[in-house]
Amino acid sequence: MARDITKLHPEARRLALQLVDECEKEGLVIKITDCLRDKAEQDALYAQGRTEPGSIVTNVKYPNSMHNWGVAFDFCRNDGAGAYNESGQFFTRVGAVGKRLGLEWGGDWKSIVDKPHFQLAGWGSTPAKLKQQYGTPEAYMETWPAQEPGWEKSADKRYKYRKDDLTLAASEWLTINNHWYLFGADGWMLTGWHRWNPDTRTVDPVDGSGDWYFLDNTYNGPLEGACWHSRDNGAQEVWFVE
Ligand SMILES: [Zn+2]
Description:
This protein is of the alpha+beta class. The chain has helices at about 10-25, 40-45, 90-100, 130-135, 135-140, and strands at about 30, 70-75, 105, 115-120, 150-155, 160, 170-175, 180-185, 190-195, 200-205, 210-215, 225-230, 235-240. The site of zinc ion has 6 residues, from strand 2.
């Protein structure tokens, strides 16, 4: 199903979710529409207006759409003003937010301007490069990192945590195996002393606000990253949650 965001390349999925959040902060309510389009879906789209009723909506056959490679997604307006109502520079403003996150925006293309479209940057507007490098979408997908909920260790021995909805924990506390862990804005599990401002949900806010927490920094220890708190008598104890 083309609307299934979990079928996207992990990076495209992460950015799509982030885009929705960032847009909301600016009062731009959007909905992600088409994501990965498999062969049957692209064939059906191509048939529309040709061998099937309706008007022509695409000139590309599988696998010549970036959507067939899982690196592209579309969005529409979701604030009740009409899905493709451009009033208030809506699509241009969303385009700017996406570009800030590092996405390529179809509204910047010269030949076919495609304002409701985003994709991973660096591949160009057609899948020519992807085809050359991987051959088929299936072969390309084989190279994608596997995604499952749980801890993810980086090459430089730091940790992120993927939640059940497959998004990464960021700027939040999570209870994992009875212990509290704090994650920074960029998703890294934190160790050592850090501040947390619950009102702004910010880790180590630059204005110096927030309360201090100590997160076990014993590298590779059983409680690495787990939160400690101080008792009334000044002792520190690990924060265990039943
Ligand atoms: Zn698109």
